[in-house]
Amino acid sequence: MQVSDAALETISEQYTRDTEILRLIGELREVFENNFDRTWFSLIIDGMPIDFRTVRDIRELVSLTSVYPGEEWQLYQGVRELETFHQTVKHFLLPVLKERLGVSWLFPHRRVRDAQQYILRKFVAFTFPYNLEHLRRLTLKLKSCLLFHYPFLE
Description:
Layout: H1 5-35, H2 39-44, H3 52-62, H4 72-93, H5 97-101, H6 115-149
Helix pairs in contact: 1-6, 3-4, 4-6
């Protein structure tokens, strides 16, 4: 039995597409799990308008290790929730991040007293905007990739 060139080309295109999507998901997983899916982060976003569904859908997206036909909408929903997450955190948390971490000089009575904790939290306050922007850029890359391969999602 001989496989046609067209069938091999289609399989090759699917493999390339899935590999690219999974690579981007892997990069998102690393950034999200290392910087946003942490206990300390849950504590500082307490009271902010972040829906549990948003975090659940993001966790589902970043936990994918394979892509199957028919999961396009699930992937795209995860991307949309990442966009919502980014906007919410940028709007509600970034302006008050130092206060929430206890490293702001605006509220000296709320500052962390332990020197090691202060240094660690100051480092988080310094790197957090970069990590949030990195998450946004990776989200846009995945969204562009999905829309390129599945234009019906838009």
